[in-house]
Amino acid sequence: MNAVGFPLLSLLTFLPLAGAAIIMSVRGDDAVVARNARWTALWTSLIVFLLSLTLWVKFDQSSAAFQFEEKLAWLPEFGVGYHMGVDGISVLFVLLSTALTPLCILASWEAIETRVREYMVAFLILETMMVGMFAALDFIVFYVFFEAVLIPMFLIIGVWGGPRRVYAAFKFFLYTLLGSVLMLLAILYIWYNTGTTDIPALFQERIPPAAQTWIFFAFLASFAVKVPMWPVHTWLPDAHVEAPTAGSVILAGVLLKMGAYGFLRFTLPLLPEASATFAPLIFVLSVVAVVYTSLVALAQEDMKKLIAYSSVAHMGIVTIGIFTFNQQGLSGALFTMLAHGVVSGALFLCVGVLYDRVHSREILRYGGVASIMPAYALVFMLFTMASIGLPGLANFVGEFLVIVGAWRVNPWVAFGAALGMILGAAYMLWLYRRVSFGKVTRADLRALLDLSPREYAVFAPLILLTLWMGVYPQSFLSFFEASVAALVQRHEAALGAARLAGM
Amino acid sequence: MTWILALPELVLAISGLIILAAGVIPKRDTFFPVSMACVGALLLTAVLVLGQSEGTALGGHYVADAFSSFMKLLAVSAAAVGILLSLDYNEKEGLARFEFPVLMLLATLGMMVMISANDLLSLYLGLELLSLPLYVIAAFNRDSGRSAEAGLKYFVLGALASGLLLYGSSLVYGFAGTTNFDRLGEAFGDPAGVSPGVIVGIVFIITGLAFKVSAVPFHMWTPDVYEGAPTPVTAFFASAPKVAAIALLVRVLVGPFGDLVGQWSQVIELVSLGSMILGAFAAIGQRNLKRLMAYSSIGHVGYALMGLAVGSDIGLRGLLVYMAIYVFMNLGTFAVLVAMRRQGRAVEGVDDLAGLGRTDPVTAMWMAVFMFSMAGIPPLAGFFGKLYVFLAAVQSGFWVLAVVGVLTSVVSAYYYLRIVKVMYFDAPVGGLDRAPASLSMVMAGTGLFTLLFALWPAPMLAAAQTAAAALLG
After folding, report:
1. Measured distance CA(A48)–CA(A128) in Å, rounded
2. Helix or strand holding residue A456 (H, E)
3. Does A165 touch chain B (CB under 8 A)?
4. What percent of chain B has pLDDT over 90?
5. Rounded CA separation B389/B381 (Å)
6. Which among A147, A155, A174 is the nearest to B424, CB-wise?
7. Bridge partners of residue A70, in order along the sequence
8. How much is the pLDDT for A442?
9. Hey, which residues does B288 pair with through a beta bridge?
């Protein structure tokens, strides 16, 4: 049994489904059902979040081993079991998922008016899939959650999205599915060659280098689409623009991390030689992503699209960090993932605040918002600065570490990442200037109300987190130090063994 | 006393005759009681199949083993659900004649004979016993031109297929001097000494059976017949007879011709590839749900045959699991299709489902479950069906099959998603009528199976494993 004496991770994973079942069973007229759905969803996700804080408290930071493990026979004769557990790499993403879900539900409180019940059910199912994916310690179980995320997200984009929602939903679904099925074949290959899909057991196996290449590309097909890496990122701007605000938050905050998490959990430990061989390829793709999407972001007229492209650039920095294979780079990548989850989620919420009031995401539609909504402008500025990587705010620590790590591998890669930060400052500041400053040119903007108490409640935790991560990053870094060190050590040992074998 | 082994078939045959006689006598309408009696007879048969011992009987023409039990249970339950699906539809369409369920029952008897066939002759007998009632019920709506056309088309092409099968059988008989599967297996024990004529015979037999499972390139009748036949009949066509024909194909190829796997594996591989590709691409443009499901069923047969092409026990296990899952989600989908009525008139266009998510959330939810499952999205049952056949293909190094399989499943996801899109994203165009209780029951039952299969897959896998092992001996 695990540290808390009850199956905590399974509870975190499946409790939202219980909430969804309650919401579905409510009968009555639309208003009653909608109110009930909102409150049930909020309470369910809050309870899940409070429970998940146990992970924060009880997690043993000094150990690189999997903790809170649970094991159940599922398909015993095939070596597939229901195996859950977290280590330093995954634990904070479980927390990120459980923390963002209640905020998203709160952010959708008034923005979603039609089919509230279905919306809340979809969100709770989505939470189940996200938490389950980060907690899964069996490759097949992981794959099930990884893919199942598509179903609720498809519906969220397609039902409650903008004018081109159908196109965006299909593109999102089919792009991601195409990548994933190739990974499935690689999983099947690993499964029958090693006789197990248990992740800790797979870490002990050695996959022959010739096979590693193919598996690497199969994994890449799946994870690169999810991250998303250039040039398979084109689904992301569409999905972001069309998704409702909360959908964008989850998409940017958690779903993009699934690809990077896949690299960390599977590609690096299982395929050390192939990872080392193809690291330059990843660097090139990432640097292109960072520079190219930053330039594209500069040209955007739509706020959500701009932030979507900035996400691609930030995730490029993450993939650079992952493939440096050193402590700084990997820690930086993990930290950037967390920080980006909080900050870009918050930026989408900021856009959502304006969109709820004006129903336009066009940058030129705004101007002078700072004089009308001062509190909002302050919040928006904080997250803009964080996204740029201002020291003292969340993103800085991670991006700095990645650049340091990349410098040790190749200064040019570090240069590319740094260039991305500079361009990032350009497009974010320009966005902020055009929205917040200048004269109020449109009369209808004058009537805008500043943040409501509900919106304060949504932003307050995110502001706190951003400051905390920027001022005292150690309380987050310490979670993944041991696991990252073990990962680096295993990687080097595997490469060393391969070199010995080659001699 | 070996005939006692064939007790399930005997009971089913006798009860079919009794029900037929009993249906004639009363003057009033006996559709409903006769249907219920037929379902009862099928359930009784299922119980008998469960208790059946193993062995051969009737002079070696009949075999009972774990494989036959698995497939018979599947076929019998699919047939029983098929009868349930027809209850309401036939009443409303004026097809409520007592012969209908009896014909389905007799077709089921044919399936059971096919599944237990251990001789080319009993194989043919079973196949014809299955086909004749099917020709009739395809044309059951005799006042409809489409239905009559479907019946005729099915009859002509089916007869051609039977002819090919018989020709193949006679070639095999000519070279081996026997029609018994066990002795055929002995005669063809050494692949090197087998005459090319036998291979030609096997190809003819495969051709005949490929017609019945509607695999490419012998699929042409499927869309027309599926579209023209009354919807419950289509539901029946797409489930139970498919199980039986696949079972027969597996038994013939793995049994007597098992040692010639190198010869027929390529043929099946091509058939499987063609079916998957055609099923994925041809369905994209379809606007009629029944035609769409016809192409979808061609695709699904392709995935199932992947397991046979691999030829290993893992492959057969995958095939069995795939068929079992396919039958249930397919029946569920057809339950939705049968229930589609607007102001009393049956409709079958994809666009008729528009806005179903708002007008009838429960039906829409089940339909979405079936569509995602057919597309192979976890955690629904359809994913696990695909998982096991892909595993077998990867394991035996059939990379072309595996890669084409996953890619076509992405392509086919498009048209399954389109149905979800129409139901949830589009505005309603006048609600559909409320689904009758019998159909809601079928939807809920098959839907729960599809949804919750992931929780407890072990029993089905174990049963499929035993069945596959029994076949490979």
Report:
1. 10
2. helix A453-471
3. yes
4. 58
5. 13
6. A155
7. A84
8. 77
9. B349
Locate the domains of chain A by residue range.
8-501
Contacts of A364 (CB under 8 A, 6+ apart): A301, A434
Give buried/exposed letters for B70-86 (b at 16+ CB in 10 A, else e): bbbbbbbbbbbbbbbbb
Instruction: Report pLDDT digits (tens) over B150-185.
Output: 999 999 999 999 999 999 999 999 988 889 988 888
Whether A187 and chain B come into contact, CB under 8 Å, resolves to: no
C-alpha R_g of chain B: 21
Alpha carbon distance B10, B8 (integer Å) = 5
Angle between helices B240-254 and B458-472 (to 10 degrees): 40
Q: How many CB pairs under 8 A join A and B?
A: 84
| Whether B466 contacts chain A with CB within 8 A | no
To probe the interface with A, which of B310, B317, B365, B377 has the most A CB atoms within 10 Å?
Answer: B377
Residue B255 has pLDDT above 50, yes or no: yes
Task: Lowest mean pLDDT of A273-282, B20-29, B169-178, name the range.
Answer: B20-29
What are the pLDDT digits (tens) for A389-446? 888 888 888 899 999 999 998 899 899 888 888 898 999 998 888 888 888 877 777 7
CB contact under 8 A, B465 and A154: no
Identity at A77, one-letter amino acid code? E
Please give, rounded to a whole number of angstroms, the shortest distance from the CA of B394 to a CA of chain A: 6
Q: Tell me if chain B has a CB within 8 Å of the CB of A154.
A: yes
Q: With contacts defined as CB-CB under 8 Å, which chain A residues touch B358?
A: 115
Is B465 an interface residue toward A (CB < 8 Å)?
A: yes
Domain segments of chain B as ranges: 3-471
Query: Which residues between 286 and 325 in chain A have a beta carbon less than 8 angstroms from any beta carbon of chain B?
Result: none
What distance in Å separates the CA atoms of residue A131 and residue A134, rounded to the nearest whole number?
5
> What does each C-alpha distance from B238 to A116, B68, B182, B213, B298 come to in angstroms?
37, 20, 31, 9, 9
What distance, in Å, lies between the first and last C-alpha atoms of chain A? 45
Q: How far apart are CA B57 and CA B65, in angstroms?
A: 12
Looking at this protein, which amino acid is placed at residue B236? F
Check CB contact of B469 with chain A, cutoff 8 Å: no
Q: Which helix (H) or strand (E) holds A71?
A: strand A67-75
In Å, how far is B370's CA from the nearest CA of chain A?
Answer: 13
Instruction: Quote the CA–CA distance of A463 and A381 in Å, as a whole number.
Output: 11
Tell me the nearest-neighbour CA distance from A200 into chain B, angstroms. 21
**B358, B378, B402: residue with CB nearest A147:** B378
| Cross-strand bridge partners of residue A302 | A362
For helices B313-339 and B458-472, what crossing angle results, to 10°?
130
In angstroms, the CA A70 to CA A76 distance is 15
Three-state secondary structure along A423-435? HHHHHHHHHHHHH
Smallest Cα distance from B204 to chain A, Å:
34
Tokens in use for B342? 């607007």
Which of A75, A148, A165 lies closest to B377 in CB terms?
Answer: A148
Distance of CA A249 to the CA centre of its chain: 9
Give the whole-angstrom CA distance, residue B246 versus residue A78: 25
Binary contact (A177, B458; C-beta < 8 A): no
Pairwise CB contact (< 8 Å): B402 & A154: no
> Could you tell me which of A75, A155, A91 has the C-alpha nearest to residue A122?
A155
Which of residues 356 through 395 in chain B touch A, CB cutoff 8 A?
357-358, 361, 372, 377-379, 383, 387, 390-391, 394-395
Tokens (6 digits) for B396? 């035996």
Q: Quick check: B190 pLDDT over 50?
A: yes
Residue with tokens 């003057």: B27
| 8 Å CB contact of B409 and A159 | no
Number of H helices, E strands in chain B: 20, 4
User: Coil, helix or strand for B61?
Assistant: coil
Amino acid at position A240, single letter: H
Instruction: Kindly state whether A181 is in contact with chain B, defined as any CB-CB distance less than 8 angstroms.
Output: yes
